[in-house]
Amino acid sequence: MKLEINRIHSYYGKSHVLEGVSLEVNPGELVTLLGRNGAGKTTTLRSIAGIVRPAEGSIVFDGEELIGKEVFEIARRGVSLVPEHRGIFGLLSVEENLAIAVRASSRWSLSDVYEMFPRLYERRKNGGNALSGGEQQMLAIARALVNDPKLLLLDEPTEGLAPVIVDEIVRILGKIREAGVSVLLVEQNLAVCEKLADRHYVIEQGQVVYSGTGEQFRQEQAVKDRYLAV
Amino acid sequence: MSLYLFQALNGIGLGMIYFLISVGLTIIFGLLNFVNFAHGAYYLLGSYLCFTLVSLTGNFWLALVVAPVAVAMLAWVTEKTLIRRAYHLPHTFHILITLGIALIIQELSIAVWGPIGKTVAVPEALSGVFRMGDFFYPKYRLFVILFTAVIAVGLWLLLERTRFGALVRAGSEDAETVSLLGTHIHKLFALTFALGVGLAGLAGVLAAPIRGVHPFIGPEVLGLAFVVVVIGGMGSFSGALVGGLLVGLVQSMMTTIWPQGASLMIYGAMAVVILLRPYGLFGRA
Ligand SMILES: Nc1ncnc2c1ncn2[C@@H]1O[C@H](COP(=O)(O)OP(=O)(O)OP(=O)(O)O)[C@@H](O)[C@H]1O
Ligand SMILES: [Mg+2]
Hints:
heterodimer, A: alpha/beta, Rossmann fold, six-stranded mixed beta sheet, four-stranded antiparallel beta sheet, 10 helices, 10 strands, 37% helix, B: mainly alpha, ABC transporter involved in vitamin B12 uptake, BtuC, 75% helix, binds adenosine-5'-triphosphate, binds magnesium ion
């Protein structure tokens, strides 16, 4: 299912954060959205998920306009946001965190995600508060998977995680993509992005300033220096 | 000795009624982050509906089922039409709006049922006393203790063991993430509001045969519920239970020891809790 974002403008109060962002994710594609801190990556994902309502433009998913729909309505159409803060319920057990998201229509059941993340199975009785950062990230991804995603929006899933865990997450993302779920990935770790992505977008001050395929992007040292170097 | 046992049982019964009122208030606050000053008025309505149903049918058991459900349905409608529009506003607006609702309910009650209090007879099957050796205790009050205990267990199971309960708890932490998982958050809020208020209505029914019905009881009930919630901790089921029992026991023990000091002791206990544990006995920051 295809996502087409056409010239959206999003605001926080009076501050104009997205200034006409356009991008698309084709069925089964893994696309990254790159850019410096404050460029508008999170806001783009939040606009798709309906948390922020763009004042202009359109967001069409599977032939249907998403702007104006409620957050839960968008989620029910298979657009699944894994937020930067991960949104784990600390007072619920791991199992409850998953159970409230389970939908029968999903190709991933509870036991499927436990198989993918054995660590979560071991900790299923533990409270969300008791998990490490890596475990929380795994739980957030697992929870999105049982929620029947058609398009997964991931906001910096490897941020602050140890290299072993990052590898683990890269492996899982590979599997998700093999299953045919489209992914829009916001990520600072360029190595991870280049390993996984079909295409890349770079956003700067609320505008898309570059787009290219994985292969093209590898050669674009100038783009990386200009927009992504810290 | 048996006087103290008698008062202790009274305190537990009273405390369980306070628990029913406060647990609704605290669940609503926890999930919806909404301050419901109409809670006492819904309790009042539960009492009056009980009075009317018992007068019309003579059947207390019918009132026990119908009145709380009717109060919950009214709450559901109020949530749909009015209250949901106020969630995004500061708490002062919640207070203004629900205080308005409380006054409307109170004044309408006076218009319908008159300014003088009413009494509700104890149901036939539970009139008289339960006797064990030389100990006597009113059957109805014993029933209230057992019945509210069953309700408390049922409510605990609902909150801790069902998907609905998990969603309520999850939503109390982070409602946005709950809706990101595709949960119809407005429905969840409306149901929770109706449930919480329905429990206040149930408390009103149960208390009616003991304390009668009086049109100005709402604010007193609301005040006590807030004391319980402050002592137990906002948003906490266990807090409402322990806080409710504590307030009930203190109130009832004080009636034998020093009746005039009952309120003083309760507010004193609240002050001590606030000083030692600002978030209440079971509260979290
Ligand atoms: N809730 C908010 N209220 C007001 N301004 C905000 C809010 N959230 C973000 N902004 C501003 O919007 C701009 C874009 O923020 P956004 O979070 O989308 O950036 P980002 O690309 O995700 O950055 P990062 O890499 O730091 O996560 C920034 O200037 C930020 O300060
Ligand atoms: Mg961000």
